[in-house]
Amino acid sequence: MSTATLRTVLGNYPHTQALKSAGLPHDVVAFDFVEVAPVHKAFAPMVREAAYDLCELAIVTALQAIAYGAPIVLLPAVVASRFQRGCLVGWEPNGIPRPDALAGKRIAVRAYTQTTGMWVRAHLHEDTGVDTADIHWVTQDPAHVADYDDPPYVTHVARDKSLADLLREGTVDAAIFGNDLPSESGFQPVLADASARDRAWWATHGFMPINHMVVASQQACDASPGAVRAAYQLMKDAAERLDRATDAPVPYRFGFTALRGPVAYTIEACQRQGLLPRALHVDEVFAPAMDLLGHDGD
Question: Which SUPFAM superfamilies does this UniProt record tie to the protein (predicted)?
Answer without folding.
Answer: Periplasmic binding protein-like II
